[in-house]
Amino acid sequence: MDPLFIYMAAASLAVILLIGALDKIRNFDLFEGAVMAYRLLPMNSSKLFSAVFVAAELGAAVLLLIPQARGYGALLALVVLGIATAGVAINLARGHTDVACGCGSLKQQSAGLSWWLVARNGVLLLIAALLFLPQNAFIDRHLNWVDGLTFFGSTLAMLGLYFAVNQLIESHVKLQKLKEI
Length: 181
What we know:
Structural class: mainly alpha
Helix content: over 70%
Number of helices: 6
Radius of gyration: 17 Å
Distance between the termini: 50 Å
Order of helices and strands: HHHHHH
Strand content: under 5%
Mean pLDDT: 90
């Protein structure tokens, strides 16, 4: 496999986690409220959990961008995404869908939880797991300027696809709720 895929995956995942962490920091009270609404933790531990979760998300984003620490960043990303996905799945299984997912755009009114969020996070978990492949699984080659252009273009395309999927999930959930009325 070409090493460029690892760079694109790490950069895309880092940007997604970084944007999520910064939004949670900016709107920490709203994020803490979303954590409480999941009803998975004792009320008095939600502030601590929220702070640790945001720190882990931010740490994963930074570590993914450092080649020597990428494995640690991928592990931390797997933990963060795994916890978030488990929280969504547990609430969906309980039938508790009118909860803001707490995964981005905290200022906007969230449409609620959906299995599409679990699927989206599954793809992100797969990308994080890809970063654990051993170095000998990749072609050893020098990167050139065309690779730089490919890296930036592909990373931007992956991010655009991620945000488009988020918008589609949000619209789908809102449409389903309108059908119920």
